[in-house]
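Input:
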Amino acid sequence: MKKNFWLLLAIAALAWFNAGTVWLIQFSCYPLWPRVGHDAFGTYFQFWQRSTWSVVTLPFALAAIGSVILLFVAGSELPRWMLWSGLALQAVIEFVRWIWVGPLEQQVARLSGPSEHPEYRRLIHANWLLIRLVTAYAALALWTWSRTAWSATANRIAGAYC
Amino acid sequence: LITSALGLYAVGNIWLVQLVSYRLWPYVGRQEAYAYHIAWWHSIWGVLFVPAGVVVVGSVAMLWIRPEGISRQSARVGFNLQAVIYIVTAAWFGPLMARLATPDSGLSLPLYHLLMTTHWVRVALFTAYGLVCCYMLAKSANGLAWRNA
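Output:
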């Protein structure tokens, strides 16, 4: 099996892992913030930031790095537009995380809790965009992997009958 | 393909729960702990249980209907892992979760520490199922090729 087959499988697995984290953050983590308590929110948020490094920031970074590596090692069976689309999605995901969602989280924390602040509603809104992007990348990664796998299969079948 | 994708989605869920969500509970205000705990329980229904249900249905279906290249044994391993996940959840984690916080005393720290220690078992089971999904994805691609080569 080609190296890029395993790389694609790892990227697809990582992409679905990331989808699992970003959907849970939107539907469970953020909605719980208004229930933390005004006085406790400062330390709660500090721990939130520290703890998301290993399970959110690192896997997101690995997926982005993987999409760059894929551009160089992918075989000719994969259309270049697919690889560039993946890289573009990863670039937008990282941009939205660092330039939009991250600062909005900080603003919410500075207000000592989300409650009904417009910043909190903006954070939820921004994270919807992140969900769409991460889910789109997960679907694309799985589609790219399937294409490689089936292309390898088709080549072998063709080789066996020729 | 859908079962495997959602199996890997569940691995992302369970690691976030273990390393972030559960570990945040002691930081919640004492007075708010019970309401927070109840809100947590309601918040996970759609985002965790619905995809998990699809994975269970998929793992059962794969006992009879499998893509080319995936053995019955692999499907059985996947189904058994799912069965163990639900047995330990119903027998241990569900009842433990129900006793974890009360309106009067808030979060029970001894029970919380017990949850944090034992929940690694569920993390391991979900991760193992994710690995089985990766194995089945690889085999479904390789199996047909090897068989026809």
